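Its record is set out here:
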Amino acid sequence: MKQSSKNTSGQPAGPNILRSLWNVVSLYRDRVIYSLLFLILAKIATVGVPLMLKRIVDHLSRPETIHTLPVLILLGYAILRFSSTLFTELRDLFFSRVTQHTVAEFAQKTFTHLHELGASFHARRHLGGLLPNIDRGTAGISFLLGVGLFTLVPTLVEIGMVLAIMLANYSIGFTVVIAATFALYTGFTLFFTQRRAIFQRRVNRLDTNAKNRLADSLINADAVKYFTNEKLEARRFERIMGRWVDAAVSNQKALFILHVGQSGIIAIGVASVMLLAGQGVVSQQMTVGDLVLINAYVIQICLPLNALGFVYREVRDALINAERLLELLREKPDIEEPPGLPDLQLRQAEVAFEHVDFQYDPGRPILHDINFTIPAGTTLAVVGGSGSGKSTLARLLLRFYDVGAGRITIDGQDIRSVNTASLRHMIGVVPQDTILFNDSIAYNIAYGRPTAGRSEVIGAAQAAQIHDFISSLPQGYDTPVGERGVMISGGEKQRIALARAILKNPPILIFDEATSALDLQSERAIQVELDRLARNRTTLVIAHRLSTIVGADQIIVLEQGHIVERGAHASLLQQDGAYANLWRLQEHGNLVENS
């Protein structure tokens, strides 16, 4: 099986994320262009405000004009301020669909990709940590598109325009001081933000660990109560949170140094510019309006400069948060199916395992030279001890994994040579552990065939001997089953799984210890329906209770991944081997249970 590395491309996450963002954003080129146009207009209006303010101050400072009201200039000042806000809001309005669509696209892409990943990924993943990683990743993408793009670009535009005006109208000393302040601020921010990223990654990692621990503990809440280990769980969680607190405090210390340093650099730059401007007014080389203009521009630059530092920090954090999301999207499925494979062409539904070997991990062989055929319309049962490889046969037939050697065929077609979706469409499964969606009973039954109507759902429930139970509930078929079906019993969940299979009505069936959650009375009641469902269908039965497979056309016995016996029930008893021993043990257990 293929395992993906942490960064399969070997490239930094930032460029990969930005490239992926552009691929989605480029679908909205017109909106992006309009948004950038409004952005530039907003900044032109913002830079024009101090110029208009200078004219107002100069007009009202001259003795010859102090008694006249500059109405047009005052109106222009108000219009410019309003225009700055208007164009900014128009920018956000036009770009909102781009942002929301991109976030939704990444969320949908991640959701789809997770379902495409194989069984080994889902076996090792931690749901408590997976969900926060996805949440932080999509939030990071939203920031990169919205605040990141529309703070970084306009800030650079504004600083460039202000420097051009200062250079054109005032001594080069002002431009040199502002440029030096900008350069020092940028270098300081880049250096200390890079150092702080180490702490941010550690905080994220510990936060993910805490979520994993929390989810795992709550999922197993019954086990915690069985062993009265509430205090043990609390202590374990407390230790994780203690490490998280230490990491968060270290992160805050790094942020403190960053903020204080940035503010100090800005203060030095502002002081230097204002001293130069004050000297110019005192020496009568500049007017009071010039002082007001320079002061407004310095403040106007410092605010976005401070915002630029914030954005850079947040962009770094957003890229860190999006790294794991990108890693998830780079995870490779266990089985990479080439495009264009034909659908499975079913003729008789004969299933064959031909000299199959399989191992989940190197050095851990599960199946050895498994060779059997299930003729069309017949039932083959597999029995054996725990860990003998019984359920692995079902996973291989469904192509959750590929065989290590040999092949599996249906009507002579190697299942690796056909479309996996068409393969699974032909197979119905009643698993040992039925996991239900946190939805209604009707929804969970109809999951076997989502297009089925309510009458078909009821018919499947009747066939599975669960209709009377459902009808007795206050909400009937609309009764919610709770998360993982915790609000109904194991036997009822098993019957719902059977109803799903009945509704799907497939030509090939897999019963993976389908009656393991039922008592003997319920088992006998439902076994009749199982036999009826299996009639004229190719059926693989993974059996725990041998009484359920007495009528199977063929039984094979697995021991440590090898077939040690095969035959019908009667012939296997006559052989007086492994199967006969299992039969005697279970018969004795039934006698004890019934006595």
In short: The first helix runs from residue 13 to 25. Confidence is low (pLDDT under 50) at residues 1-12, 591-595.
